[in-house]
Write a structure and sequence with these properties.
Blueprint (H helix, E strand, L loop, with lengths): L1 H9 L8 H15 L10 H7 L7 H12 L2 H6 L1 H11 L13 E7 L7 H9 L5 E5 L6 H8 L5 E5 L2 E5 L3 E6 L6 H7 L10 E8 L2 E9 L4 E3 L3 E3 L1 H16 L5 E6 L10 H4 L3 E2 H5 L17 E6 L2 E7 L10 E6 L1
Helix pairs in contact: 2-4, 2-6, 7-8, 9-10
Length: 331
């Protein structure tokens, strides 16, 4: 009996158990809460923001460990990451779509090595989109898309690796330089890494007036052994697009793009200040688009201003490493 009493005294109280689990729970909460303040040295901050939703996976894992350890302190500490994650992403989980809409748009990085461009084009045309933006076109694949889409889309513009197909008239299509922009291009030497034009601007004539439309494919990001998360080309393109969008006086504007980064990434702070994401305002869930075989991030976006989004969704795969996305909007 005396031995059992001594064991009970030696056993830590529930509030004192699991100090490591408690510390991990608090650290997780702080990462979610203060992610914007994390240094971007070696791209750390940007990388963290691209995987931010997935940090929520650690909440149930730590909760199971805390319950097994019977640590009240760890369970209580987990309230911080749970509340912060729900505040950041909980609104994405419910269905925000509504019926109706005047304009359906779609965008897709079709992949330079897509094995069947013609089949991909037919899949995209079947979406019913009035506007269809394609990224990562090549001189070899572009003619296949032109031929397969001509019966559905009487108007189109291809400039470099991006193109827009439309059921409505297009005018004044011209390239947007997102490669050689500002001091970033000079200091980070990223321009030479992105051949060809990668963004365009045009005006779509609708029954309710003109809509400015941008199509863009920002530079890729890379995990480099020595320099960390390399984002130079992507960041240059984001800055150039921000400048173009903010200078555009059009009351109605669409940006259809492969951003090579999620909407939470700090590289898009400027765009977030001027544009809305259809997935955030009218979608259900995260709408992940990449990689197509097991989507873990939404790096493709339909962004807008001066319109209202009714619905946002992903489309079936086409053989690309990205999934296509679509949205319906109202004037």
């Amino acid at each position: 009996m005396m031995r059992n009493a001594l064991r009970a005294c030696a056993r830590p109280e529930p509030w004192k158990r699991g100090p490591v689990l408690t510390a991990l729970a608090l650290l997780l909460g702080l990462l979610l809460l203060l992610h914007a303040t994390i240094t971007d040295h070696a791209g750390l901050g940007s990388l963290m923001e691209n995987v931010l939703p997935w940090l929520g996976v650690f909440v149930p894992v730590l909760l199971a460990a805390a319950c097994r350890r019977r640590s009240l302190s760890a369970v209580t500490a987990l309230l911080l990451p749970a509340v912060v994650w729900t505040t950041l992403f909980g609104g994405l989980l419910h269905d925000k779509s509504r019926p109706g809409g005047d304009l359906t748009v779609a965008t897709h990085n079709v992949g330079a090595t897509n094995p069947d461009p013609t089949a991909a084009a037919h899949t995209l045309a079947a979406s019913g989109a009035d506007l269809l933006a394609l990224e990562e076109l090549t001189p070899q694949t572009a003619p296949s898309y032109e031929k397969a889409l001509v019966s559905t889309y009487p108007y189109h513009a291809i400039l470099g690796t991006v193109g827009l197909w439309s059921k409505l008239p297009l005018s004044a299509a011209h390239p947007i330089d997102i490669v050689n922009y500002g001091p970033l291009a000079a200091t980070k030497s990223a321009a030479a890494k992105l051949p060809g034009n990668r963004a365009l601007h045009t005006t779509v004539t609708t029954p309710d007036g003109p809509v400015a439309v941008y199509v863009a494919h920002l530079g890729s990001v890379r995990l480099m052994p020595r320099t960390g998360f390399w984002t130079a080309s992507r960041d240059i393109g984001a800055a150039a697009l921000t400048k173009a969008v903010t200078a555009d006086p059009s009351p109605r504007l669409l940006l259809l793009a492969d951003l090579n980064g999620t909407w939470d990434d700090r590289a898009f702070n400027g765009l977030r200040a001027h544009l809305n994401s259809t997935q955030r305002t009218s979608g259900t869930g995260f709408g992940f688009t990449w990689p197509a075989t097991f989507p873990m991030a939404r790096i493709d976006q339909i962004l807008y201003r001066g319109l209202e989004a009714n619905r946002s969704w992903t489309l079936p795969g086409t053989g690309s490493d990205h999934l296509p996305i679509a949205a319906t909007l109202t004037w």
